[in-house]
Automatic annotation (TrEMBL):
The keyword Cell division does not apply. One of its GO terms (biological process) is small molecule metabolic process. One of its GO terms (molecular function) is catalytic activity. This is 2-keto-4-pentenoate hydratase/2-oxohepta-3-ene-1,7-dioic acid hydratase in catechol pathway. It comes from Amycolatopsis thermoflava.
Length: 278
């Protein structure tokens, strides 16, 4: 199952066809994408019977963030060893957790305003929670997951690294710095490990897979839920593989006109153009 946000309404997606969930369910489920996760078992059972003969074509450019207003957004830094090494920071067995504020979230296509001269890219797998989770074990963690989506943790490195210690969340939360999409994909449609790639102006800059994670998804859910209660629709950005701009010699950052494509095989692709502030 693939859940998308088409012009602000929740849809089931298949190829280039979409079903409006509220209309197809006769109002049993509303149009708000986030509401589906609060009723996930009931919704998933209904979606398995949905008829795609009533689906209508759509344009990928009309998709918004599939989870536009999550209650909480967690993000994990330094969860790939080669990425930690390229940044000169130490990775360990304890996850480095911060937040991307929800106002940074945007859809899988569009224009993003540069916040300054040091904006960097980070392709990430994003987990979408289906159930309230508190003190969940790694062995049981996947039972609490609705699906997975593609994310970018765009980062203003000057802001992120200002102060002592660095303040990760502000540098990663400018408008548009948290793209999601094109859909939330349920686990039955995916085969792991998942390949993550990012291109800048058609140059491949990141190419990794989820098997390289230091702490896998289940372990992240266990660690976070031991402290914070996770709620349906909450997001977890799970870290990025090597290849970011700050890890290059000299560092390389995004400039006006740059096009960033972000892809996770089996889930889909996003495309964003960076522009100067008007």
């Amino acid at each position: 199952m693939r859940i998308g946000n088409l012009r602000g309404r929740a849809h089931l997606l298949r190829d280039r066809a979409a079903i409006d969930i509220a209309k197809a369910s006769g109002g049993r489920f509303g149009p708000e994408p986030a509401d589906l996760f609060a009723r996930w078992p009931e919704f998933a059972a209904w979606a398995a019977t949905a008829r795609f003969d009533v689906a209508e074509p759509y344009r990928p450019e009309d998709l918004g963030a599939p989870v536009p207003r999550p209650r909480q957004v967690f993000a994990v830094g330094l969860n790939y060893a080669e990425h930690a090494a390229e940044t000169g920071l130490r990775a360990g067995g304890v996850p480095s957790v911060f937040t991307k504020f929800a106002d940074s979230l945007t859809g899988p296509h569009g224009r993003i305003v540069l916040s300054g001269p040091s904006v960097d890219w980070e392709v990430e797998l994003v987990v979408v929670m289906a159930r309230e989770a508190r003190n969940v074990t790694e062995a049981d963690a996947w039972d609490y997951v609705a699906g997975l989506t593609v994310g970018q943790d765009f980062s203003d490195r000057d802001v992120q690294m200002s102060g002592a210690p660095p303040q990760f969340s502000l540098g990663k939360s400018f408008p548009g710095f948290g793209p999601l999409g094109p859909a939330v994909v349920t686990l039955d449609e995916l085969t792991t490990p998942l390949r993550l790639r990012c291109w800048v102006n058609d140059e491949l800059v990141q190419d990794g897979h989820t098997g390289q994670m230091i702490l896998p998804v289940g372990a992240l859910i266990e660690r976070i839920s031991a402290v914070c209660t996770l709620h349906p629709g909450d997001l977890i950005f799970t870290g990025t593989p090597a290849g970011v701009g700050m890890g290059r010699t000299p560092p390389r950052y995004l400039t006006p006109g740059d096009v960033v494509r972000t892809r996770i095989d089996g889930i889909g692709e996003m495309r964003h153009v960076f522009v100067e502030e008007a």
